[in-house]
From TrEMBL:
This is Nitroreductase. The keyword Flavoprotein applies. GO terms for molecular function: oxidoreductase activity. Signal peptide: none annotated. Coiled coil: none annotated. The keyword Flavoprotein applies. InterPro entries: Nitroreductase (IPR029479), Nitroreductase-like (IPR000415), Nitroreductase/BluB (IPR050627). It holds the Pfam family Nitroreductase.
Length: 216
């Protein structure tokens, strides 16, 4: 696919079809993500791919724990503590996605059911970094994840990065045999989008003139 099309067509999918994603395709996607830059080429990331029965076990455990408050390895900052600019963007996103549905009840039902069932993802790639990492390693993991999601799109696969999938890290650690000295950063769902309303929403971006400053 043209690079511009890959970038423009990637968007977060919140309801995947049951179509399986084969291991070879995921390996090819990871091989491209592996080209991502990192601090002194430290390559701090490790990937744990959950599919099949293992992913089903994770989903079942998450359904049971759904009402519990999450406790991800990275702390979650209360929304009031974010900068004014980012709060404005987050509010706009919430407003738009709710209004993308017929009414508030439908939006609430579809969004929370999607998250409870981990978006019906046929595969989730969990990304970790060592516990003794520099903040720069979070930057590196982010670059790795973005390359991975673009590589997925290039192969016709949809994706979503989610806090939701890492909100109970003990469940992921146990099911994926992740050592205690690794921090769980994110889960990237991979699969094929269902043709449903929740997947037709497209998030907006600020005008580049509002975020960019040139100085000669
Ligand atoms: C670190 C991170 C965590 C996210 N967690 C969630 C999540 O738990 N649930 C969800 O629906 N979307 C989640 N998203 C997706 C964002 O809402 C989405 O990327 C953003 O709204 C921009 O939309 P787009 O990905 O469609 O371009 C997450 C994104 C990132 C980068």
């Amino acid at each position: 696919m043209e690079f511009q099309n890959v970038v423009n067509n990637r968007h977060s999918v919140r309801d995947f079809s049951d179509q399986v994603v084969d291991h070879q395709t995921i390996k090819e996607i990871i091989a491209l993500a592996q080209k991502s830059p990192s601090w002194v080429n430290s390559q701090p990331w490790k990937v744990y791919v959950a599919t099949g029965k293992t992913l089903q076990n994770i989903k079942d455990a998450y359904v049971k724990k759904d009402a519990e408050k999450g406790y991800p390895d990275f702390p979650v900052m209360h929304r009031d503590d974010w900068s004014a600019e980012t709060q404005k963007n987050m509010q706009q996103w919430r407003h738009e996605i709710v209004h993308h549905f017929e009414n508030f009840d439908e939006a609430h039902e579809k969004m929370s059911s999607a998250s409870t069932h981990l978006y019906n993802s046929p595969a989730i790639v969990f990304v970790t970094i060592p516990k003794n990492s520099s903040l720069w390693s979070v930057f590196d993991a982010g670059a790795f994840c973005q390359t991975l999601m673009l590589a997925a799109k290039d192969k016709g696969l949809d994706s979503i990065p989610t806090y939701t999938s890492v909100r109970f890290p003990d469940v992921i650690r146990q099911n994926m045999d992740i050592p205690d000295n690794e921090t769980l950063v994110i889960g990237l769902s991979l699969g094929y989008a269902k043709d449903v309303t929740i997947n037709t929403y497209r998030s907006k971006r600020e005008d580049i003139d509002d975020i960019t400053k040139f100085k000669d």
